[in-house]
Write a structure and sequence with these properties.
- The complex is a heterodimer of chains A (about 325) and B (about 425).
- In chain A, helix 2 links the parallel strand 1 and strand 2.
- Chain A contains 12 helices and 9 strands.
- Chain A is an alpha/beta fold.
- In chain A, the strands form 2 sheets. In chain A, strands 7-6-5-8-9 form a 5-stranded parallel sheet. Chain A has a 4-stranded parallel sheet with strand order 2-1-3-4, with helices on both faces.
- Chain A folds into 2 domains: about 10-135 and about 290-315, Aspartate/ornithine carbamoyltransferase (Rossmann fold), CATH 3.40.50.1370; about 135-290, Aspartate/ornithine carbamoyltransferase (Rossmann fold).
- Chain B folds into 2 domains: about 5-50 and about 375-429, Roll (Urease, subunit C, domain 1), CATH 2.30.40.10; about 50-360, Alpha-Beta Barrel (TIM Barrel).
- Chain B starts with a strand and ends with a strand.
- In chain B, the strands form 4 sheets. In chain B, strands 1, 2, 3, 4, 5, 16, 17, 18 and 19 form a 9-stranded mixed sheet that branches. In chain B, strands 9-10-13-14-15 form a 5-stranded parallel sheet.
- Chain B is α/β, with parallel strands linked by helices and about 425 residues long.
- Classes of the chains: A alpha/beta (about 325), B alpha/beta (about 425).
């Protein structure tokens, strides 16, 4: 694996399968009474969050702590970066504290890339979501979840599985990372959105696209719903939230057209009643809560592989 | 009495070697084997002589952002790049929208003495795009402003643009439009295309530039005014200007060196040293610009020299300022992309970088052929050497050159402003 995880494109199929297999081993830890490994004892992981985030930050924190790393949480929102201290100065501060890995969430696309390549820090950089660019560990946990439900043989193989990713693809870092990673793992991805919410040039991505949700989901093995952010609702991307829900929301009526084994996913936070109805979110098909659990295991695997080295079993 | 200079064995516009005698501010004699006992001899064997370059598009940042550039430092960079005149854009603080500000900039240029500074006046008060600035007062001031531009912002209101085009006819002015439809470029960061979608950087569609250029060509045609289009960056824009010219519209256009050599692929580094307005475009756009510059659709190479302090580039892409340095590398890039590529000869370079910009800016003392009696504004250029760009060597107060470490052809050896050297042996005098 590369030293940093900035994009799902950084992962070869072998890399991605290694992460997912490692996560599978670490996932079993969640069911044990003592959930801690000494693998990263003495190492420091900094969670550098320039944007509000609950689940991703907590997930990384839990992952690092279960590997016995020291964790420093740094939420810049509303403090230094609001005006004054730059990304660079914050990074230099963290470097001076001896961070081994920096997990960064930032509103600007490419900010983790800048951290990794500007010479400001020597530590490994993990992208925990940057602007409208990527969120590679979310894609890894989604792949892990898909693999547990739909996997064929070894962890990570999604050959031939059909995944529909539905919603605001244009502004979604989750969609970008998933499109890249799921294709790497052999899945057939279809992005479903109104034309205004598909990026220019999407035809060159390794995916299919469709404007018609009803035509796509009966063939899907998994349906991943993306959040529609409130600020988009008034941005003219679609006429009204009601029309969006009618055309691109997943409700009970549409859920009835899914195959029996098809799962429903959502990276969270959900806007119930907008892109997903409450009965779908709470249905047996929904793996949304499991995604959160899997997130910890996948992030443990990522931190472990970036910072550790030996196999997890050998360190206990 | 000022020193005279006898330039020996120089190739004027790439022609047969000859001599030039620069005396009393003019080209006093031209011909092989000249002698002048009182003149300092400059051996120019192997060098090309061009008329002093004229930049239609320079940001000198003074007043207001003297941390990025001053008239003094910016005109030093200009002289080192072979320029004897620059047009200083109006987006200073305060904005150059009154006679007072343009006269101040003009006077600072005179005092610095490295090249002539022609202030550009803002079209609208405070660049706000709401009402016309006192264009006539700026035209009548000591700065004699003839080029008006809200550069950095587009005069997007069609009525306001029409009035500006009409109004400047009274004093033979020209409106230089920064063509950028604001609604189509809200939050835009880089050229819109497959790459912007992949990088998650908000796209800047070509149509946002082309739609404004098309509209302005129609407006200029309708009211019979002349229009200048700043920093054309797309193949579509080149074609729109080409068609307008064919119809007889009085439109001129400029291209920037960076748009002749760099492409949007560089945004994949997320290094905002490559962030510029308009953005770097695709290889096809670069090729179209070169072709347009070669066939005369694009009249001028203008630098859009845009200094920014280090901290405004040493950050994440979205937070960084738009713009890049250009004065000291412009001629080398034109050599690389146009001359060495066989698209333009040295006479063509003189036209695009001296005669045409002087004509458009109505600058009488610049942009004249190096003939007897012409003002002695001359650049001596060595096209045979190659150099590696080192930002630390720049005379600019800023270091935001995208060409760091790049090897470029050619070097300015000397620049003369009215017979007085501003640069000799490649260094400021």
């Amino acid at each position: 694996m590369k030293r940093h995880l900035l994009s799902a494109a950084d992962l070869s199929r072998d890399d991605a399968e290694l992460v997912l297999q490692t996560a599978a081993e670490l996932r079993s830890l969640a069911d044990r009474p003592i959930k801690k490994l000494p693998a990263l004892r003495g190492r420091t992981v900094v969670n550098l969050f320039f944007e509000d985030s609950t689940r991703t930050r907590i997930s990384f924190e839990a992952a690092a702590k279960r590997l016995s790393a020291d964790v420093i949480n740094f939420s810049a929102k509303g403090s230094s970066l609001s005006k004054g201290e730059s990304l660079k100065d914050t990074a230099l501060t963290l470097e001076a504290m001896g961070a081994d890995a920096v997990v960064v969430r930032h509103g600007a696309s490419g900010a983790p890339h800048r951290l990794a390549h500007s010479g400001w820090v020597r530590s490994s950089v993990v992208n925990a979501g940057d602007g409208t660019h990527e969120h590679p560990t979310q894609a890894l946990l989604d792949a892990f979840t898909l693999s547990r439900h739909l996997g064929r043989g070894k962890a990570g193989s999604l050959d031939g599985r059909r995944v529909a990713i539905v919603g605001d693809v244009l502004h979604s870092r989750v969609a970008r990372s998933n499109a890249l990673l799921l294709a790497t793992l052999g899945a057939e991805v279809t992005l479903v959105a109104p034309p205004t919410l598909l990026p220019v040039g999407v035809d060159s991505w390794p995916v299919e696209t469709s404007y018609d949700l009803d035509a796509v989901i009966p063939k899907a093995d998994a349906v991943m719903m993306l959040r529609v952010q409130r600020e988009r609702m008034n941005g003219g991307f679609f006429p009204t939230p009601r029309e969006y829900s009618r055309r691109y929301g997943l409700d009970g009526r549409r859920m009835a057209t899914l195959q029996d084994h098809t799962i429903v996913m959502h990276p969270g936070p959900m806007v119930r009643g907008m892109e997903i109805s409450a009965d779908v979110a709470d249905s047996d098909r929904s793996v949304i809560v499991e995604q959160v659990t899997n997130g910890v295991a996948v992030r443990m695997a990522v931190l472990y592989l970036l910072l550790g080295g030996a196999q997890p079993g050998g360190e206990e | 009495m000022s020193t005279s200079y006898l330039v020996k064995n120089v190739s004027v516009l790439g022609g047969e070697p000859t001599d030039l005698l620069l005396r009393d501010g003019v080209v006093a004699e031209v011909g092989a084997g000249l002698e002048a006992d009182d003149a300092e001899v400059v051996d120019a064997t192997g060098l090309v002589a061009l008329p002093g370059l004229v930049d239609l598009h320079t940001h000198l940042r003074e007043p207001g952002r003297e941390d990025a550039e001053t008239v003094e430092s910016g005109t030093q960079a200009a002289a080192l790049g072979g320029f004897t005149a620059v047009h200083a854009m109006a987006n200073t603080e305060p904005v150059a929208d009154t006679a007072g500000v343009v006269e101040q900039v003009w006077r600072l240029g005179r005092e610095a003495g490295h090249c002539d500074v022609y202030p550009v006046g803002a079209v609208t008060v405070g660049l706000q795009g709401e009402r016309l600035a006192e264009l006539g007062a700026m035209a009548d001031s000591a700065a004699r402003v003839r080029v008006f531009s809200d550069d950095g912002k587009c005069v997007s209101d069609a009525v306001l643009m029409r009035r500006a085009l009409e109004y400047v006819k009274a004093f033979d002015g020209v409106v230089a439009q920064h063509a950028q439809e604001p609604r189509l470029t809200e939050g835009a960061q880089m050229n819109e295309g497959e790459l912007s979608g992949r990088l998650g950087l908000t796209g800047w569609p070509a149509v946002a530039e082309e739609a404004v250029i098309a509209r302005d060509c129609l407006l200029a045609e309708h009211v019979g005014s002349r229009l200048h289009v700043c920093h054309v960056s797309t193949a579509g824009s080149v074609q729109i200007v080409r068609e307008a010219k064919a119809r007889g519209v009085d439109v001129t256009a400029e291209a920037c060196p960076h748009h002749l050599i760099l492409t949007d692929e560089l945004a994949a580094t997320y290094d905002p040293i490559y962030k510029v307005n308009p953005p770097l475009r695709t290889r096809a756009d670069v090729e179209a610009l070169r072709a347009g510059l070669a066939d005369g659709t694009i009249d001028v190479v203008a630098t859009d020299h845009a200094p920014h302090p280090h901290e405004d580039k040493d950050c994440e892409w979205a937070a960084a300022a738009f713009g890049m340095l250009g004065l000291e590398t412009a001629l080398s890039i034109v050599q690389e992309t146009m001359v060495d590529a066989g698209l333009l000869d040295w006479a063509g370079v003189a036209e695009r970088m001296s005669y045409a910009p002087a004509r458009i800016g109505r600058v009488a003392d610049h942009g004249q052929p190096l003939e007897v009696g012409a003002p002695a504004n001359v650049v001596l250029y060595d096209p045979s050497v190659r150099r590696t760009v080192d930002p630390a060597q720049s005379a600019s107060l800023s270091r935001n050159t995208p060409y760091r470490g790049m090897e470029l052809p050619g070097r300015v050896v000397a620049t003369f402003l009215r017979g007085r050297p501003t640069v000799l042996a490649g260094a400021l005098v």
